[in-house]
Amino acid sequence: MTDQERKEFLKAMEEFRLKLKGDKKLSNAFLIDVGIFTKDGKLAEPYQHLPSCFPEVKRESAVI
To answer: 43 forms bridges with which residues in the sheet?
Structure first.
């Protein structure tokens, strides 16, 4: 990957992040699509240990 390709990729990722940040429904759909949330809004099994790793962070339930 060239430096220019890397910059374009990072710019596209930042634009996508901002798009997701402003839309909870779209954010939840993305997390379901990539397998982090199940369709009913719970953490998928491989990620269920994460809340215990960060007890100071309270996770909102995903309402879809």
So the answer is: 37
Query: What's the structural domain count of the chain?
Result: 1
Whether 12 is covered by a domain: the verdict is no
Mean pLDDT, the chain cut into blocks of 10 residues (64 residues total)? 96 93 90 91 83 62 50
Question: If you search the block for the tokens 């379901």, which residue do you land on?
Answer: 32
Which residue range forms the structural domain that includes residue 35? Answer: 24-64
Q: Give the DSSP per-residue string, 1-60.
A: --HHHHHHHHHHHHHHHHHHHT-HHHHHHHHHHTTSB-TTSPBPGGGTTHHHH-TTSPPP
Asked whether residue 58 is domain-assigned, the answer is yes
Query: In 10 A of CB 31, how many CB atoms?
Result: 19
